[in-house]
Specification:
Layout (H helix, E strand, L loop, with lengths): L2 H18 L7 E2 L2 E2 L6 E4 L4 E3 L8 E6 L6 H14 L10 E6 L7 H7 L7 E5 L2 H10 L4 E4 L8 E4 L2 E5 L5 E6 L4 H9 L3
Parallel strand pairs: 5-6, 6-7
Antiparallel strand pairs: 1-2, 3-4, 3-7, 5-10, 8-9, 10-11
């Protein structure tokens, strides 16, 4: 089995495991899974963003990396499409957040050129490797560096989940990269 196939299999298994509740559901509090929590990162403009900065609006969060050839751009486009279905002003009422799992390469400057491709209101977040590891752990995100093929640049194997948080930053639900925009739109619409 090729490295690419192993990496894709790893993402698929991690995604299924999280979606099925096999991992990351270790502590139920008030009937909600313990996913998410406080974090401090830096946005594409170099400003500090905390979990509290996102409160006041429903939030969609996706963890990925800018060098991702397919799944990440597709998932970010899915988020934007879902919000567009809610009407022309919806993007101002929802936080759309991309958090990198590749802080070595995904600097604020790189994110500044990347996230606007998916909508003008997208927030791209990065931080130190430890900050990224902490927020990924809080959201039960799997990620790992994978050597590039034939000496090419490395890739990041990672789970592919869109998280929906309410206005108070509490986890509501999640969607796999195979979700339909209508389902995400409906879930966000219930929180507006």
């Amino acid at each position: 089995m090729s490295r690419t196939m192993k990496a894709l299999l790893g993402v698929w298994i991690a995604t299924l495991a999280l979606a099925a509740g096999w991992i990351g559901w270790d502590a139920l509090q008030g009937g909600r899974p313990s996913i998410g929590g406080p974090f401090t990162l830096v946005d594409q403009d170099g400003r500090t963003v905390t979990s509290d900065s996102l409160k006041g609006k429903p939030t969609l969060i996706y963890f990925g990396f800018t060098y991702c050839p397919d799944v990440c751009p597709t998932s970010l486009l899915l988020m934007e499409t879902a919000i567009e279905k809610l009407g022309p002003d919806a993007a101002k009422k929802v936080n759309l957040v991309f958090i990198t799992v590749d802080p070595e390469r995904d600097t604020p400057a790189l994110l500044k050129g990347y996230v606007p491709n998916f909508g003008p209101t997208f927030i791209g977040l990065t931080g130190t490797p430890q900050q990224v590891a902490d927020v990924a752990r809080a959201f039960r995100v799997y990620y790992q560096k994978v050597p590039g093929k034939d000496g090419g640049p490395y890739l990041m194997d990672h789970s592919s989940i869109v998280y929906l948080l309410d206005r108070n930053g509490r986890f509501v639900t999640h969607f796999t990269h195979e979700a339909k925009a209508d389902a995400i739109s409906a879930a966000v619409g219930r929180l507006l």
